[in-house]
Write a structure and sequence with these properties.
With about 375 residues, the protein is mostly helical. Helix content is about 60%, strand content about 0%. Helix 10 packs across helix 15. The structure holds magnesium ion.
């Protein structure tokens, strides 16, 4: 039996899809999307995720999420959602594991600063960079650059895109110009990402002591789940109470997404992936759950992502990224030879510097900064 026989007709199927930029013969024992997932796991960019910040700097504590464990949690949640909706789990897994490959060191601040540095040279956007990693930067094959992934995996990685960039990118970004949708698997992974970070950022926030249960109880959604736990286990506190609450949070979000999306799919009755592309977004939370999830996001934004201790990290990190960029732009001879461009094309040189910095792990960026600016270290 083919591994894709259980799929709904509107799921993304390995065969009959848009396929790869460079044609390849089918593999005897793995579907196309299984191959994509395997290529992503074996990439260098994937291994770097272990040392890249999610919210907390990688070396602040061993238990905090990194980009790697975040990506694994997205894949886990995404796969179980996909199986319930008879969508392609392998594609969801591939997109999940690749979705943050283009992230800079130090989380979102790294991207924002690099984008400012690159303002005159085409900007920098981590989604686009994830696509660039799998399309161009990975060096694994004799015949071409990148990993030669399936179209469906690449369009899932490209979650957002400006119209300007869409015009430059070609077919993979055409949907932003046409205002059509990507596969249901891509839509689903996007929301699996949101479920994962909403829940693990609460966990990491509590663990770090930057937010408290008392504060979280102001969020209606969290308060309801916390009360459920207290009813089931009177007096329960500490780690167990937190995990019991977060389990319920993930389950509530996942169950709502499955039920809401299932009925939207039934109403739209897409016959195949082409119908999905033309329909409005079909993978959604209910209105009530969207409201709850947004309230939680707002809470995390105000109380965790903008906490003064996180702000200190952010300001320091932005200084490191900016100083690295400026130093390399002023003196490209400081760059490793692979990243030096022939003198003359400042745009190309800037892009290579952005690639170099974006590829750095947190600790590599800190070390590189020290190597360039500290007189004690040569
Ligand atoms: Mg993510």
């Amino acid at each position: 039996m083919s591994p894709e026989e259980y799929l709904a007709p509107y799921a993304a199927h390995s065969e009959g899809g848009i396929g790869r930029r460079h044609a390849e013969t089918a593999h005897a024992s793995r579907s196309q999307f299984q191959r994509d997932r395997d290529r992503i796991i074996h990439s260098s960019a994937f291994r770097r995720l272990e040392y890249k910040t999610q919210v907390f700097l990688n070396h602040e504590g061993d238990l905090f999420r990194t980009r790697l464990t975040h990506s694994l949690e997205v894949a886990q949640i995404g796969r179980s959602l996909a199986r319930n909706l008879r969508l392609n789990e392998d594609l969801v897994e591939a997109i999940s594991l690749a979705h943050d490959l283009g992230h800079t060191p130090f989380g979102h601040v790294g991207q924002d600063v690099l984008n400012e540095c690159m303002r005159d040279y085409g900007g920098f956007e981590h989604n686009l960079q994830s696509l660039r990693v799998v399309d161009e930067l990975e060096e694994h094959y004799g015949a071409y650059d990148g990993l030669n992934l399936m179209f469906e995996t690449r369009e899932g990685i490209l979650k957002h895109c400006s119209l300007n960039n869409a015009r430059l990118l070609g077919p993979v970004a055409q949907r932003f110009l046409d205002r059509t949708q990507p596969s249901l698997e891509a839509q689903l992974t996007n929301l699996a990402d949101e479920i994962a970070y909403n829940s693990h950022d609460i966990d990491d926030g509590l663990r770090s002591g930057l937010i408290s249960i008392e504060q979280l109880e102001q969020v209606d959604f969290f308060a309801r789940l916390w009360r459920d736990v207290q009813q089931a286990f009177p007096g329960l506190s500490g780690r167990r109470a937190i995990y019991e609450t977060l389990r319920r949070l993930i389950t509530a979000l996942a169950d709502d997404l499955i039920a809401t999306s299932g009925s939207r799919i039934a109403d739209a009755a897409p016959k195949n992936i082409e119908d999905v592309r033309k329909a409005p977004p079909l993978i959604r939370f209910s209105d009530g759950m969207r409201k709850d999830a947004t309230e939680l996001k707002r809470f995390l934004h105000a109380n965790l992502y903008r906490h003064y201790k996180v702000n200190r990290m952010r300001v320091k990190a932005s200084r490191i990224v900016r100083e690295l960029f400026d130093a390399f732009m002023n003196d490209p001879v400081l760059l490793p030879p692979d990243y030096q461009d022939k003198p003359g094309d400042v745009h190309k040189q800037a892009r290579k510097i952005a690639d170099y910095i974006a590829g750095m792990t947190d600790r590599y960026a800190i070390r590189e900064h020290r190597r360039l600016f500290s007189l004690d270290e040569l």
